[in-house]
Design a protein that fits this description.
The protein is built from three helices and ten strands, in the order ββββββββββααα. The protein has a single domain, classed as FomD-like (FomD barrel-like fold, Beta Barrel), CATH 2.40.380. Helices cover 23% and strands 40% of the residues. It is an alpha+beta fold. It has helices spanning 126-136, 140-159, 167-178; strands at 11-17, 23-35, 38-43, 48-51, 54-57, 62-66, 72-77, 84-96, 102-115, 121-124. The chain has a seven-stranded mixed β-barrel.
Length: 189
Amino acid sequence: MSDTRPAVGSEMVFQWRKWDGSPHWRHQCVYLGADEWGDWLGQPVGWHSARPSASFTAHGSNVTLVPPSGDHALTVNRDHPKAMRIYIDIAWDVRWSDDPLLATGIDMDLDVVRVDGERGTWVDDRDEWAEHSIRYGYPADIMAHLEALALDLENRVRAQHPPFDDAVPDFWLDRLEGLGLGAAPTLIS
């Protein structure tokens, strides 16, 4: 794992994989900087994310926090078409590679979601978690840690404790939009 970070405004990639090493989501991002909670990446409107058999283009700006714990990644959306404000990927081994323009992580299925409106906040994809724990043979100690983490994060998101509030990510969303980035780069291929 590298301690080297790209320069603020550098185009980069966040590459997810599954427990067995197979590729998962690959997001075009820009490095925004760091604060007491970790490193922040941004994805401007029009930039791309892709995985085998699916892709999307960001319709609203979003920022992702990569915390030093390496066990989750917090994404906060601005103007998401489904009113999804927060999406936390419960993860394993989220880290910077030896290439400072590449962050990587293992997607562990469970997610914490907050939408504006009646549905509120919940832990999502428990069915996928159960299925993949058998398919991939997740170690019991990692499963126990991540299940407890998901519940803890759900409570912190519901209570809007920083950085799961609006003020902290809005600072980084404003910074992203202030960069004035245009069309998506061709990094995603």
